[in-house]
Specification:
Elements (H helix, E strand, L loop, with lengths): L2 H25 L4 H14 L8 H20 L5 H21 L16 H4 L1 H20 L5
Keywords: Membrane, Transmembrane, Transmembrane helix
Protein name: DoxX family membrane protein
């Protein structure tokens, strides 16, 4: 990565990476009730997750958030890789927003008060796509030196 790309990506990677590290660390010691609530919310939109035990689900979610946070914060992880991971994870949370009743105003994409915490993940999708595109265009268009 050239220094211009690194400088341009730094605010994106730091803000999203710190967010995911904090979120993953917060779920590490989740109690049974928290695990059941998170698992129940996720299985409402993604029924295949119902096969997982709630505690296992939260451990995997925490590990995924920690890994994603680290990938964003460690500069040796290519932007395209970190961006792809962030985009995929954030699209999953936007899926929760779109599929869960009560998250959006009736007949609209506008969030309700309950949906606002998930609707904001559209910014994370934007950050992920920016990193992904920056990583891919720098490699395929000869911009890197």
């Amino acid at each position: 990565m050239d220094s211009r790309s690194a400088c341009r990506q730094l605010p994106l990677r730091l803000s999203a990476g710190a967010f995911f590290l904090n979120s993953g660390l917060g779920k590490r010691g989740a109690d049974e009730e928290t695990a059941r609530n998170l698992h129940g919310f996720a299985t409402g939109s993604y029924p295949f997750l119902g096969k997982l035990d709630p505690q296992r689900f939260v451990r995997l979610l925490s590990a995924g958030e920690l890994a994603l946070g680290a990938a964003l914060l460690v500069p040796v992880v290519p932007a395209a890789v970190a961006g792809a991971g962030l985009t995929a994870f954030s699209l999953g949370t936007l899926g929760l927003y779109l599929r869960t009743p009560g998250m959006r105003e009736e007949g609209s994409l506008r969030p309700t008060e309950q949906g606002l915490p998930l609707a904001k993940d559209v910014w994370l999708v934007g950050i992920g796509l920016s990193l992904l595109l920056d990583g891919l265009t720098g490699r395929c268009c000869g911009r890197r030196r």
